[in-house]
């Protein structure tokens, strides 16, 4: 496949470590993919679904102890500990290579080593970066074929260059106690061992496109962010682009594919999806920010996806899709998950592969009783999405009008507010907080600070990351305006107050009106909040002006509690938090005490 000596000698070194029976290059062809699917079906690694209803769709179950990213086993291995920062787990690179080498040793014995050359970003674009992943898992190969651009043209684009990210993955024994997801940003290297779950093993995604890429972005003057990208088209056919960072399982895929409410649809508004998880962002010649989605597919949360909440995502999963850890309907050989519809299958296997009784479902113990795991996923091709943007394959990216941060907060954060400028916007991103979700192992529903939704994904010191945001601001002549949203405020009974999903478009419309200078706002201690009457609620049954007022309140007492928590968090990040952000924090506190 290649004569590139950097590639060949690295593969030789790795294969002498893991000792595969043979080595197979993945060429991106449909024949080869079909072959691998057949092999995986023969061993039970994949289950072929009802091919009439779900053409080219498959079901996979991971090990029961391996269903989400493992943040406490994720390491940034820089030579100096300080460069990884205090929020990341750190290991000395030499020590880490030695430790993991023992786990990799002969782990491919009797197995095939698959070599996956892939590009993050359109091959030939200035944004694009190349990786090669070595894996012992067909499931990983088939997912990478959907999530990235794979094939011979990638190897051709690499030529003789040594500039590629070296990824080594082994499911090995899938031993939880010896599971490691390690990044060596100074060596362009990722080592992942003892997991078979998405975010731990599809190395192009979080490992490369965020952790390694954020490190490269700082060095090279661009940004790698945990953001969706959408285009909002008005009835005149003009499209404005918005990027939004929400933590894992907090609504990126849903917002990226939203269907406008009837009032906007009728008027001719449309929403187009450029990306649902990751944005690579550069300053364009016109001084605006341009964003691309480096991925080629969606690795989306299945539960909650239905005809009403996210019709476009549901349609995207109807062909060429791999489902992971969902419920298997044995009567029809199809898939099911909680909130897909009100008809749970009566003859089914749950995500563990056990006979499942839907009547035993108990919201308080989803993992134990649900048909589908709360973090069960679909891997679907972007090109199969009904609302995929015509700019999806754009070489130069799309210009950003607005950046949105958002968290899952039952209280405190209002439905939407606008920052005063880039520096204040950076501050707003840096103080983001959200309740934890099933996307990562650990307790669910605990509020933690998650700056820019990047807490688990920054490949270096968090304070340096904030500084990089501020520095980027100085290079952008026409910066996007920065906002914060919260779809998840609850009433005293714990129900979400805002209808969310498609109706989030109502908030986007206010955001774009602000960017165009078309609407006034109310200045509050935290930033600009809409006048309640400026959020369009026409056609909403359960929301009136008072509800909106409620959603927009800024409660000084709970914000002052937040300020104390932010001080602790900044202190935890340590000495590299920029002084400008401490100034913003002091301003916030003073505003609240006024
Ligand atoms: P990752 O893929 O983990 O990065 O997640 P994501 O940010 O793309 O989240 P996704 O859109 O998949 O949504 C996760 C969960 O949040 C699903 O269960 C959704 O049903 C729910 N959700 C999404 N948007 C909304 C909303 O506007 N309101 C409410 N109440 N729930 C939402
Ligand atoms: C996330 O957790 O933010 C995801 C899924 O997008 S994973 O690929 O597992 O990271
Ligand atoms: Mn994500």
Structure summary, number of beta strands? 31
Q: At the first level of CATH, what is the class of the largest domain? A: Alpha Beta
Q: Percent of residues in beta strands?
A: 15-25%
User: What Rg do the Cα atoms give?
Assistant: 23 Å
- Assigned CATH architecture of the largest domain: Alpha-Beta Complex
Number of domains: 3
Q: What would the principal axes of the Cα set say about the shape? A: globular
Helix content: 25-40%
Number of helices, where a helix is a run of at least 4 consecutive DSSP H or I residues: 18
* Small molecules bound in the structure, each named once: guanosine-5'-triphosphate, sulfopyruvate, manganese (II) ion
By helix and strand content, what is the structural category?
alpha+beta
| Biggest beta sheet attributes | 9 strands, mixed
The CATH topology of the largest domain turns out to be Phosphoenolpyruvate Carboxykinase, domain 3
Textual characterization of the structure:
There is one protein chain. By secondary structure, the protein is an alpha+beta fold. It has 18 helices and 31 strands. The strands form six sheets. Strands 1, 4, 5, 6, 7, 8, 9, 10 and 11 form a nine-stranded mixed beta sheet that branches. The longest helix has 18 residues, at 556-573. Residues 69, 198-199, 205-206, 248, 277, 299, 439 line the site of sulfopyruvate.
């Amino acid at each position: 496949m290649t004569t590139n000596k950097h590639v060949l000698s690295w593969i030789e070194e790795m294969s002498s470590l893991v000792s595969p029976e043979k080595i197979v290059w993945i060429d991106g062809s449909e024949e080869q993919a079909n072959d691998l699917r057949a092999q995986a079906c023969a061993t039970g690694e994949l289950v072929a679904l009802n091919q009439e209803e779900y053409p080219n769709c498959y079901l996979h179950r991971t090990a029961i102890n391996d269903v989400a990213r493992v943040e406490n086993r994720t390491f940034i291995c820089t030579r100096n500990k300080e460069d990884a920062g205090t929020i990341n787990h750190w290991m000395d690179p030499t020590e880490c290579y030695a430790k993991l080498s023992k786990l990799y040793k002969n782990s491919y014995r009797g197995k095939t080593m698959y070599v996956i050359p892939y590009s993050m970003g359109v091959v030939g674009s200035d944004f694009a970066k190349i990786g090669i992943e070595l894996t012992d898992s067909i499931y990983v190969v088939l997912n990478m074929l959907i999530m990235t651009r794979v094939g011979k043209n990638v190897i051709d684009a690499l030529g003789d260059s040594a500039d590629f990210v070296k990824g080594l993955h082994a499911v090995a024994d899938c031993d939880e106690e010896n599971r490691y997801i390690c990044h060596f940003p100074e060596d362009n290297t990722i080592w992942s061992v003892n997991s078979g779950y998405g975010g731990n093993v599809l190395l192009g995604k979080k490992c490369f496109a965020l952790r390694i890429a954020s490190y490269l972005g700082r060095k090279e003057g661009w940004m790698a962010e945990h953001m969706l990208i959408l285009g909002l088209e008005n009835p005149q056919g003009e499209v404005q682009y918005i990027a939004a960072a929400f933590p894992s399982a907090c609504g990126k895929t849903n917002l990226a594919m939203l269907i406008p409410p009837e009032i906007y649809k009728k008027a001719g508004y449309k929403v187009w999806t450029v990306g649902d998880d990751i944005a690579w962002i550069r300053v364009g010649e016109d001084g605006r920010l341009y964003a691309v989605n480096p991925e080629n597919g969606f690795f989306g949360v299945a539960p909650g996806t239905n005809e009403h909440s996210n019709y476009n995502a549901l349609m995207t999963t109807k062909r060429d899709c791999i489902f992971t850890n969902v419920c298997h309907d044995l009567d029809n050989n199809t898939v099911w998950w909680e909130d897909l519809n009100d008809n749970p299958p009566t003859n089914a296997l749950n995500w563990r592969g056990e006979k499942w009784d839907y009547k035993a479902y108990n919201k308080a113990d989803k993992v134990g009783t649900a048909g589908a795991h709360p973090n069960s996923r679909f891997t679907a091709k972007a090109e199969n999405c009904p609302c995929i943007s015509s700019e999806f394959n754009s070489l130069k990216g799309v210009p950003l009008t607005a950046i949105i941060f958002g968290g899952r907060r039952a209280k405190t954060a209002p439905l939407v507010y606008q920052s005063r400028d880039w520096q204040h916007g950076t501050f707003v991103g840096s103080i983001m907080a959200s309740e934890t979700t099933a996307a990562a192992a650990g307790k669910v529903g605990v509020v933690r600070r998650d700056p820019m939704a990047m807490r688990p994904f920054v490949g270096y010191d968090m304070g340096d990351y904030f500084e990089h945001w501020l520095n980027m601001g100085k290079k952008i002549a026409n910066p996007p305006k920065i906002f914060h949203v919260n779809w998840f405020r609850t009433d005293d009974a714990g129900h979400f107050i805002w209808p969310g999903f498609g109706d989030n478009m109502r908030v986007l419309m206010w955001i774009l009106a602000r960017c165009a200078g078309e609407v006034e706002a109310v200045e509050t201690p935290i930033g600009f909040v809409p006048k309640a009457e400026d959020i369009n609620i026409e056609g909403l049954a359960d929301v009136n002006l008072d509800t909106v007022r409620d959603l927009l309140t800024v409660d000084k007492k709970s914000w002052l509690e937040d300020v104390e928590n932010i001080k602790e968090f900044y202190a935890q990040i340590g000495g590299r938090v920029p002084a400008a952000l401490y100034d913003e924090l002091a301003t916030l506190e003073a505003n609240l005490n006024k």
